[in-house]
Amino acid sequence: MKALVYHGANNKSWDEKPKPQIQQPTDAVIKITRTTICGTDLHILKGDVPEVKVGTTLGHEGVGIIEEVGTAVTSFKKGDRVIISCITSCGKCVYCKRSMFSHCENGGWILGHLVDGTQAEYVRIPFADNSLHHIPAESDEEALVMLSDILPTGFECGVLNGKVAPGSTVAIVGAGPIGLAALLTAQFYTPSEIIMIDPDDNRLEIAKQFGATIIINNNKENAVDIINKHTNNRGVDTAIEAVGIPATFELCQYIIGPGGTIANVGVHGKSVTLHLENLWAKNITIKTGLVDTFTTPLLLKTIKSKKLDASKLITHRFKLNDILNAYDTFENAEKEKALKVILINE
Ligand SMILES: NC(=O)c1ccc[n+]([C@@H]2O[C@H](COP(=O)([O-])OP(=O)(O)OC[C@H]3O[C@@H](n4cnc5c(N)ncnc54)[C@H](O)[C@@H]3O)[C@@H](O)[C@H]2O)c1
Ligand SMILES: [Zn+2]
Ligand SMILES: [Zn+2]
């Protein structure tokens, strides 16, 4: 079969590889029908995630059809259509028992990281019973790829950790797919204002269409001043960091109001200054998190009932064997006006 293989920093290729086999009775092998590329794959290709071994197939998102299951798999059978969760969970360890699947002692984020991932014609999924979700009949499967990672991430790490509430004020720093997923799912709770901050005008325009009430280009405007003006100098109740650099976490500290919550979603490679001299008396909470994907079933229901339109996040489509061009488009997201890029394997 064909797979997108990591060969070290800045080096990937579309290679011939053996089709994965069942290794444990709890495994399933899936034929990928749709997959996508994540910002995290770009981090890996920059060499930022050194534990990824040369020869690993990248990708941790996708949907497909079960090709084969191990003898211990009871919830899925050959031919079932499934969503692959970016987080693998054994269902038995102390963290799985607390629904903190991201820290599963036998899984967690391993796909396209510690084991071969989904940017391939076939993938082996460990602990299939706990790491896959059935696709309801007549679903838009392409839209369900957004449930592998970005929707649960925006919702769990941004909206739920950020305690978004009816009538509250929310600022989201970063209007990439994750920030936009937080914007879409924040609206379940009807906050009174959702302020979106990004230097990319195209993404801000999309954010407006998706329901942002105020957009701020922080390359051209002063985000702190504008937010103060709109909140009677109180600051926001929730500040969601969806970029992953020191400047954006600092910005969250300047715009958070008394009693508010900063929810960090971005993956940080550098340390950040904590301004306790300003924040010590503000009664704020800072939350961090890796996505657990415990909300995937709930989000699937909101998509099925059309309360949430996940397909809006998809801007480009390529054939799976054209994945190198898809990477080029995704790497030049601003110029290409790209959000999520779907790869089709038929
Ligand atoms: N915590 C988790 O479990 C988890 C899961 C998935 C992704 N992530 C992380 O979430 C972050 C966002 O992911 P994404 O796929 O949307 O990334 P992305 O790179 O597509 O989007 C980031 C956005 O931030 C904007 N930006 C850059 N500098 C900025 C600044 N100074 N101020 C405001 N905006 C700025 C960019 O224009 C871009 O629109 C990444 O760090 C990613 O690794 C975390
Ligand atoms: Zn991802
Ligand atoms: Zn576990």
How is this structure best described in words?
The longest helix has 11 residues, at 150-160. The radius of gyration is 20 Å and the shape is globular. With 346 residues, it is of the alpha/beta class. Helix 5 packs across helix 6. The strands form 3 sheets. Strands 3, 4, 5, 6, 7, 14 and 15 form a 7-stranded mixed β-sheet that branches. It folds into 2 domains: 2-149 and 293-344, Medium-chain alcohol dehydrogenases, catalytic domain (Quinone Oxidoreductase, Chain A, domain 1, Alpha-Beta Complex), CATH 3.90.180.10; 152-287, 3-Layer(aba) Sandwich (Rossmann fold). It contains 13 helices and 15 strands. The chain starts with a strand and ends with a strand. The mean pLDDT is 97. The structure holds nicotinamide-adenine-dinucleotide (NAD) and zinc ion (2 copies). One zinc ion (ZN) binds at residues 89-90, 92-93, 95-96, 104-107.
- Small molecules (ligands, ions, cofactors) in the structure: nicotinamide-adenine-dinucleotide, zinc ion
In N-to-C order, the SSE pattern is EEEHEEHEHEHHEHEHEHEHEHEHEHHE
The global form is: globular
In quaternary terms, these chains amount to single chain
Strand portion = 15-25%
Domain module count = 2
Topology:
Blueprint: E1 2-6, E2 12-16, E3 28-36, H1 39-45, E4 62-69, E5 81-84, H2 94-97, E6 122-125, H3 128-131, E7 132-134, H4 141-144, H5 150-160, E8 169-173, H6 177-186, E9 193-197, H7 201-209, E10 214-216, H8 223-230, E11 236-241, H9 246-255, E12 256-264, H10 276-279, E13 285-287, H11 296-304, E14 314-319, H12 323-331, H13 333-336, E15 340-344
Parallel strand pairs: 8-9, 8-11, 9-10, 11-12, 12-13, 14-15
Antiparallel strand pairs: 1-2, 3-4, 3-6, 3-15, 4-5, 5-7
Helix pairs in contact: 5-6
The structure holds nicotinamide-adenine-dinucleotide (NAD) and zinc ion (2 copies).
